[in-house]
Each structure stands twice: as structure tokens, then as C-alpha cells.
Amino acid sequence: GQNIDQPTEMTATEGAIVQINCTYQTSGFNGLFWYQQHAGEAPTFLSYNVLDGLEEKGRFSSFLSRSKGYSYLLLKELQMKDSASYLCAVRDPNSGGYNKLIFGAGTRLAVHP
Amino acid sequence: DAGVTQSPTHLIKTRGQQVTLRCSPKSGHDTVSWYQQALGQGPQFIFQYYEEEERQRGNFPDRFSGHQFPNYSSELNVNALLLGDSALYLCASSTPGETSTDTQYFGPGTRLTVL
């Protein structure tokens, strides 16, 4: 089966840097996504990785190591509005070429002043 | 450019009733996926529609059914509601492939409460 693990909760200070880890066990690999979800709202797309390495987008960066089944999301210069859940998701490699996502349970990040 | 829209925002039903949720995809998207998100969990894939046909289904019973219309909008129907069906139902739209440009974009969701 497919499994995605993330820490349940993290706390950080405004202005600091935080790294949210994600490990996955899947039979094959076809892309990894990070989404941000504020309480009661829809997930919003943050980043996509399909090759090893770092993808940078402003204050947010995402890293992938396919050989280790590992990704992280790095948030710099934390702001209070970054308090949210961060969802790691992989494209199901067994979905027959269809665009189906498997999500982890999410990491709730609390940013304190 | 309108994003993904869903209706209604909130819904309260009682056990045994039936419910229909609606979704309009983002402009330019023709594939609609539905997800169920229980409190404190990540979204779980229900099914996906493309060209008005269900082409992929997750581990959900037949009480969950759907439809896609020629304009790519979609409905999710749930029959014989159970208390455990209480969740946020998310619609995501995309193009049908598996590249970076086929990223799924989510609507605001419908919060269903079953009493």
C-alpha cells in the first residue's frame, strides 16, 4: 500500500525558519505536492517536486530525495499568517496514469510572536 | 479567472437522508476529483470524473456516486447518510495528465454535518 508520514504538530516563532518533513512509502513515484490549509478552508497549492533537489518559491522551498522517499517544506521569515496545516501528497503511481493524490494527515504549524 | 467553486458551503442532514453537492471547475480544467476530509485528517480520494465518466475510484461504498456534465461541472451524491459521513467535501479540478501543469486546485469545500 501507500503511506505518507508527517509530524502532527509543530510550533515556531515569528521571523524564524521551520522545516516540515514528509516521508512516503509508495510502489513507484510520480510527483509530490505540498499544500497549505487554513482551518476550515480549502487546501492551496504551494509546490511540486518530481526530480531530486530543491525548488524555491519566495519564502517557501521544497526538497525531494526520491531514493530516500523523503521531502521537506522549508518556510523562512515566518509570519503569523503561516499558522496553518501543511499537507504532503503524492500522485498515486498505481492510478493508471490518472491524476489521483494520496495525502498525509497534515502537520499543524503554530507560529507565535 | 474564476477558481473552483462549490455549493452549498454548509449542509446539515439527518441519518438516512440523501445529499447532492455541486462543483464547477477552474476555467480551462476538464477533470474533477472529489475528496472527503474528516476533522484532523488529510483529504481522502473518493473518485474522479473526466469526459463525463468516472475513471478512478477510491475506497468508498456505492452510496457515494457522482456525475459530470458536458460543461465539466460535477455533482457528488451520497445516499443513506451515516454519522460517519460528516466531513468537509472538497472538489479539485485539473487537466487529466500527470505533469506539473496538471496540478489539482481545490474549491472551498462543503461542510456536511449528519445528525
What do these coordinates show?
The complex is a heterodimer of chains A (113) and B (115). With 113 residues, chain A is mainly beta. Chain A has no helices and 11 strands. In chain A, strands 2, 4, 5, 9, 10 and 11 form a 6-stranded mixed sheet that branches. In chain A, strands 1-3-8-7-6 form a 5-stranded antiparallel sheet, with no helix packed on it. Chain A is globular and about 45 Å long. In chain A, 38% of the residues are buried. The mean pLDDT of chain A is 93. Chain B is globular. Chain B has strands at residues 5-7, 10-13, 19-24, 31-37, 44-50, 53-57, 64-68, 74-78, 87-94, 105-106, 110-114. The N and C termini of chain B lie far apart (37 Å). In chain B, a hairpin with a 2-residue loop joins strand 5 and strand 6. Chain B is an all-beta fold and 115 residues long. Chain B has no helices and 11 strands. In chain B, strands 2, 4, 5, 6, 9, 10 and 11 form a 7-stranded mixed sheet that branches. A 4-stranded antiparallel sheet of chain B has the order 1-3-8-7, with no helix packed on it. The mean pLDDT of chain B is 93. The interface between A and B is medium-sized, with 29 and 33 residues.
Tally of DSSP β-strands of chain A: 11
Q: What percentage of amino acids of chain A are in beta strands?
A: over 45%
Strand content of chain B: over 45%
Helix content of chain B: under 10%
The whole-number mean of residue pLDDT values of chain B reads 93
Oligomeric grouping of the chains: heterodimer
What can be said about the biggest beta sheet of chain A? 6 strands, mixed
Rg over alpha carbons of chain A:
14 Å
Going by helix content, strand content and strand pairing, the class of chain B is mainly beta
- Gross morphology of chain A is globular
Number of helices of chain A: 0
Main sheet record of chain B: 7 strands, mixed
Form type of chain B? globular
Give the N-terminus to C-terminus distance of chain B in angstroms: 37 Å
Poorly predicted segments of chain B: none
Gyration radius of chain B (Cα, Å) is 13 Å
Name the helicity range of chain A: under 10%
H-E string of chain B: EEEEEEEEEEE
Number of strands of chain B: 11
**What are the segments of chain A in which pLDDT stays under 50 over at least 5 consecutive residues?**
none
Return the structural class of chain A: mainly beta
